[in-house]
Amino acid sequence: MADQSIAAKARSSSDALLIFLKARTFIALILVFVFFAINAPNFMSTANMVIMSKHVALNAILAIGMTFVIVSGGIDLSVGSIVGLCGMVAGYLILNGIDIGLGWSMQFNTLEICLLVMLVGIGVGAVNGFLITKLHVAPFIATLGTLYVARGAAMLSSDGRTFPNLHGNPEYGSDTFRWIGAGEVFGIPVSICILITVGILAAYIAARTPLGRHIYAVGGNERAAGLSGIKVNQTKYFVYLFSGFCAALVGLIIASQLVAAHPATGDTFELNAIAAAVLGGTSMSGGRGRIAGTIIGACVIGVLSDGLVMMGVSSFWQTVIKGLVIIAAVVIDQAQQKLQARVALQAQAALGK
Rounded CA gap, 211 and 230, in Å? Predict the structure, then answer.
């Protein structure tokens, strides 16, 4: 009886610790928010909350695409460069259109510009998918290569210069471009509305569709997924297309917010997206992750970044702190997996008795 009592207490403490680990991202969000609310001047002001929510939205949209990639067992290092390239494409189309020769140029309205830019992002994602699925290039190497190609293409589009004054032209219907970054829908910033839409779509795909189950299966055990009839290559193609699509959205939003496009936009954004996904509980080994957790992770990164800026912390130290957060998230995730395995063994042992 005494042994049973000790075992029951051990299981109870393990279960409590497991619950705490699963809720770690939400707990971290509360802690960093309270810390900066106390220590950072004007952190709780309405203006800062609006600005911070827009920053969080950008990182969260990018991180949602990254979550699908990581869950499938891959990685996408090119998303930051896709952001910069797509912003430059939007700027080029607004200012120049497309030259069709004989002194004529094809001009586009805002909707057409957005569609073309999203096609560019999806196109880069398709290149990543092709390299990984057809040429069997490792995801890290393939997306590292497209990172440089996309960034170089962004630079070449303007010889490294900024496309300024993207106010658009009423004559062509491109003057509404700024609404994407500065507009509101029922008092909610458009960027937040886009995040909500993308988040709901991604969560539905992950939880309610065969495609979502296939993504988790491929990340959990690619060989077993293939033997069970899952189209592994098509599934991988989708996650990189979706990641490119999310990066294109972020590129459009940033160019609209700044009313300008610079080829260096999006530099190191991929690191923030990975950090948000991992912090939100996505396993770097694949097969596990939740969209809701990723969005909370993006909130933690956003609050941390803005709070450190408001406290006057050096950008160099901010980089160090973000790196430590990623390391801590991975270590805690591994601890959670080990604890879950131990709890499962304890449950099996209890049933055996």
Answer: 9
For the chain, give the number of residues: 353
Residue 267 sits at φ, ψ, to 5 deg, of: -60, 125
Q: Check if the beta carbon of residue 85 is closer than 8 Å to that of residue 219.
A: no
189 membership: H or E segment, kind and range: strand 188-189
- Percent pLDDT > 90 in the chain is 60
The span from the CA of 337 to the CA of 323, in Å, is 22
Give the residue-averaged pLDDT of 306-321: 86
DSSP states along 77-120: TTHHHHHHHHHHHHHHHHHH-EEEETTEEE---HHHHHHHHHHH
pLDDT, tens digit (0-9, with 9 covering 90-100), for 132-147: 999 999 999 999 999 9
- Encode burial over 134-159: b for 16+ CB neighbours within 10 A, e otherwise: eeebebeebbbbbbeebbebbbebbe
- Dmax over CA atoms of the chain, in Å, equals 93
Between the alpha carbon of residue 41 and those of residues 35, 45, 299, 311, 319, the distances in Å are: 11, 9, 19, 7, 21
What are the backbone angles phi and psi of residue 9, rounded to the nearest 5°?
-65, -40
Distance CA 271, CA 276 (A): 9
Evaluate if residue 8 carries a pLDDT over 60: no
Distances in Å between the Cα of 329 and the Cα atoms of 21, 24, 32, 295 are 10, 9, 15, 15
Helix or strand holding residue 233 (H, E): helix 232-258
> Does the pLDDT of residue 81 top 90, yes or no?
yes
What CA–CA distance (Å, rounded) separates 81 from 241?
Answer: 15
Reported confidence tier of residue 5, pLDDT bands at 50, 70, 90: low
